[in-house]
Amino acid sequence: MYGEATGFDVESMRWIADREGFDVEFKQVSWDGIIPVLLSGNIDLVYSGMTITEERMEKVNFSHPCWTVNQTVIVVEDSP
Questions:
Q1: Is the pLDDT of residue 1 over 60?
Q2: Which of 24, 35, 68, 73 is a plausible cystine mate for 17, CB 3.0–4.6 Å?
């Protein structure tokens, strides 16, 4: 449907799977359904891109973060 998954997160997950001796399969999941899909058992983990929040911690378990990304939004002064 969307082609093969690629990029840093995919390659690093493949490296971990190879090193630890397990198979990995990547699935396309809409972001607004990611926690329900995880809780249903249709996926085993979210590898990257999920910010740890108190609300999410009530539903799912998090490992220690691999890294922290600081995000900033810049707008013109008086912009709506």
A1: no
A2: 24
